Amino acid sequence: MRLRRKHKSPPVLSHEFIIQNHVDVVSCLVMSLLMGVVFEATTKNAIIFVAVQYNVTYTIDDSNEQFHFYDYGPKDIATIFFYMLIAINLHAVIQENILDKINRRLHLSKTKHSKFNESGHLAFFSLFSFIWGSSILNAEEFAMDLTSLWTEYPHCRMLFQVKFFYICQIAYWLHALPELYFQKIQKEDIPRQLCYICLYIIHISGAYILNFQRLGLILMVPHYLVEFIFHASTCLFYFSDENKQKGFTIWALLFVVVRLLTLTLSVLTFGFGLARAENSDFSIAGGNFNVLPVRIGCLATVCLTQAWMMWKFINFQLKKYREHVNNQIPKKKITNTKKKRTNQEPNRENCVNGAAKVEGEASPRIRKSKPV
After folding, report:
1. Which H or E run includes 307?
2. What is d(CA 141, CA 133) in angstroms, rounded to the nearest whole number?
3. Strands 66-70 and 355-356, how do they pair?
4. CA-CA distance, 358 to 338, in Å (whole number)?
5. Which residues lie closer than 8 Å to 61 by C-beta, 6 or more apart?
6. Which of 200, 210, 228, 222 is nearest to 154 (CA)?
7. What is the pTM of this model?
8. Measured between alpha carbons, how far is 185 from 181 in angstroms, rounded to an integer?
9. Cα R_g (the chain), whole angstroms
């Protein structure tokens, strides 16, 4: 009988210890904050982390109907921190219960394994954000009227779904920063992932703070649809079967359309709609940021980001085209060599005793077997 070797647990507070037990630590923090809501002594402090803050209620005198809206403020940082912890837990659940099981069946290499995990998480989040954002746009109906993007600006009062959507979006992309450490991302992939994570945080936080929530929501919904198609079709299915390219072609077409849509709505809102608005006084307390430097800064940020994405898209397409051409060149060489061999070999029907017949000449003599 062989004795099984016991795996030594890493020392406390070491890198391996934090990576292996970070989900348990985060779960304990979440449970402690939820337990704080139960007790009266800690409810006032714990409720800041769990519930959405800055509720503003309006009452109509005639019908006594109440309308609940929400503003933003410094307490939202605590709420974002709480839902960032929940995002870390959900990240671990998806990784262990879904992605790890698929990885065991596919037997991917280390590089494909990390890309598969990255695309898997982004595919789930993109699908969830697209469905949630579409439901909000369907309920609000301001997507049908583009003039609502700049009329009655500033849009300081948000509905619960809109504010909670933005808080979850910021919390998710903030949770992606420590996940670079928890998931042991390779050093070569960290700059690329860190770049698009920071871009998401800057754009979503900017739309939330500058009261451009309507424009940001309309632009995020088609963007997440394209991201879902990319990560689901061109990454997840690509690693399992590299011949499936239908999703990739759909993504390529929709990517260009969404980039043009983003530029059109941004120019229409910042260049024409808000420029002609009557309320153009800068006021931080009132949430009014409709001034020329802010509009130019926002429009320049959106245009530069879209140009950078198109540049990356063109380089990606050229890379895939070169790989496709390089894969077809060896196939042509193999077929050409086979044809040459078949042309050089004489036909067996025209051969007698190992010698080939010549047209118009007599066949060679038949070899006589020597007597033994």
Report:
1. helix 292-344
2. 12
3. unpaired
4. 25
5. none
6. 210
7. 0.83
8. 7
9. 32
pLDDT (tens digit per residue) in 300-316? 999 999 999 999 999 98
Q: Do 121 and 92 contact (CB within 8 A), yes or no?
A: no
Note the residue count of the chain: 372
**Sole residue written with tokens 């109907």:** 65
Q: Which residue has the tokens 């430097």?
A: 293
Which residues of the chain are modeled with pLDDT < 50? Answer: 1, 3, 352, 354-356, 358-359, 372
Please tell me the distance from the alpha carbon of residue 13 to that of residue 17, in angstroms, as a whole number. Answer: 6
User: Which amino acid is present at 64?
Assistant: N
From 245, 244, 250, 243, select the one nearest 229 (Cα to Cα).
250
Q: How far apart are CA 24 and CA 87, in angstroms?
A: 13
Residue 134, helix vs strand vs coil: helix
Whether the Cβ atoms of residue 200 and residue 220 lie closer than 8 Å to each other: no
Rounded (10°) CA dihedral 73, 150, 278, 59:
-60
Please state the φ and ψ torsions of residue 283, each to the nearest 5 degrees.
-155, 115
